[in-house]
Amino acid sequence: MPKGFVYILECSDGTFYTGSTINLDKRLDEHQNGSGANHTKKRLPVKLVYVQEFLRIDDAFYKEKQIQGWSRKKKLALIKGNFNELKKYAECMNDSHYKEWLRLRSAIENDTKNKQSQLVTERSRSYSNGKLLLTGEYAVLDGALSLAVPTKYGQSLDIEPIDKPVISWKSLDENGAIWFETIFNITNNGISLAVKNDNTVSERLIQILNAAKQLNSDFLNEDRGYKINTKLDFPRHWGLGTSSTLINNIAQWASVDAYKLLKMTFGGSGYDIACAQHNTPITYQLENSQPLVKPIDFNPSFKGHLYFVYLNKKQNSRDGIKHYNANKGNLHSYIKDINTISSQIIASNSLEDFESLITQHEDIISKLTKQRTIKTLLFNDFKGSIKSLGAWGGDFILVASKENPMPYFNQKGYKTVIRYTDMVLL
After folding, report:
1. pLDDT-flagged residues of the chain (< 70)
2. CA geometry: angle at 129 spanning 127 and 134, to 5°?
3. What is the C-alpha to C-alpha distance for residues 247 and 249, in angstroms, rounded to an integer?
4. How far apart are CA 164 and CA 338, in angstroms?
5. Is 105 left (phi over 0), alpha (psi -120 to 50) or beta?
6. What contacts 414, CB < 8 A, 6 or more positions away?
7. What CA–CA distance (Å, rounded) separates 366 from 319?
8. Could you name the CATH architecture of 4-91?
9. 160: closest CA among 172, 152, 171, 168?
10. Which of 40, 50, 116, 191 could form a disulfide with 209 if both were Cys (CB 3.0 to 4.6 A apart)?
11. What Å distances lie between residue 130 and 153, 180, 234, 303, 355, CA to CA?
12. What pLDDT does 117 receive?
């Protein structure tokens, strides 16, 4: 295994960026020329203020994640080499916790090596598609017929048994960098943290794993554990289903109903689970609280004029749903109109018809939620049609335009513009 480096950069705005690499010079060049992380390329120039070399790159990864959780004062103490201050500002993962972490990680790796030949055939992988809801946002919760599409971006989950009753969890982002990792204990009482880290991601994972165990009492009921690696194809902030793809992957691993697992953990309509499980566009509808999923042939001839634009922030879907529930009025007539529009959008064969339909849909949701449409709010001068997707104010919007809209949105600061054909599984 190659050696590694942990480094801290001071950005032009005074913030710190912590990273790890096997090639320090190359990585520093990437940061300095703007091809590194999003945080640094927006805050050039950067200055190297700390570096530490490790014999193993995985040790460097662990140290990187530890430092990223530190306060600014503690990072400054590390940079200055003031170890008394380091101890003073120590937070949840202090030295004893970190030593325990390393001990557990070392034990897991040794066990994996010793049992590799016996367990290699039991390794498995699951994969789930990301999601976008094209029609029926919000109203899908109340039975509206909705058009949803699975994305070419998704999340995988790799499972490798080990001969120790723990779960060594590692989550990788779209670049292969670790954004979260921890170790869980497996006991008769359920799943718990082996090393304290006071992290909401850990709490969520414990909730999901224990819920899966409630649904299947045989799940995690052996005298062994697992090394788990998850890998995203898309940035977490895009809102394409980091949680739903994880729920569906864990449901596959645990052999449980993904819709039930979603209900016990995150909640929601479940359309995102349906997208995770299908490789074609679908219609989705709740009938007596049960999901009705129908694969459909939705491959519009004008798809070359459709784009998805990221609004530079991830919207909190729960907040959006709360606003919807607080303001919705006479649902019956609204849902009837949404159902008609959804069916007409699926059958549309011209860009003009499609633009008219998504504009009508926007007007309905605007009245239903008592909010201004995204086009009126942000892009009133755009010569084309714009439709919100999901909770308004964040995530992606759908854009229909005869002309390439990328220059327009780029000029306004929206740099992530993805063609329909590059986003959607057809």
Report:
1. 1, 83-122, 197-198, 314-330, 390-394
2. 170
3. 6
4. 53
5. alpha
6. 309, 310, 311, 312
7. 16
8. 3-Layer(aba) Sandwich (3.40)
9. 168
10. 191
11. 6, 20, 9, 19, 25
12. 36
Domain coordinates in residue numbering, the chain: 4-91, 124-132+154-267, 303-423
Query: How much is the CA Rg of the chain, to the nearest whole Å?
Result: 24
Taking alpha carbons only, the member of 252, 251, 231, 253 closest to residue 242 is 231
Beta-bridge partner residues of 309: 397, 417
Q: Cα(390)–Cα(121) distance, rounded to whole angstroms?
A: 41
Q: Whole-angstrom Cα distance, residue 8 to residue 19?
A: 7
> What residues contact residue 204 under an 8 Å CB cut-off, 6+ apart?
265
C-alpha to C-alpha distance for 159 and 364, rounded to whole angstroms: 45
Q: Within 13 A of 15's CA, how many CA atoms are on the CB side?
A: 10
Residue owning tokens 């922030």? 313
Q: What is the pLDDT of residue 350?
A: 97
Residues 206 and 191 sit within 8 Å (Cβ to Cβ): yes
* Tokens of residue 197, six digits: 């880290």
Altogether, the residues listed in the chain come to a count of: 426
Tokens of 309: 């634009």
What is the domain class of 124-132+154-267 according to CATH? alpha beta
Tell me if 206 sits within 8 A of 184, measured CB to CB.
yes
Give the span between the Cα atoms of 425 and 240, in whole angstroms: 13
Question: Helices (DSSP H) in 152-270: which residue ranges?
Answer: 200-215, 242-254, 258-265
Contact 178, 60 (CB under 8 A): no
Residue 313 Cα distances to 91, 237, 364, 373, angstroms: 29, 7, 24, 17
Is CATH 1.10.275.10 what the domain over 303-423 is classified as, yes or no? no
Alpha-carbon distance of 278 to 294, in angstroms, equals 10
Closest CA to 137 of 148, 151, 150: 148
What is the amino acid identity at position 215?
L
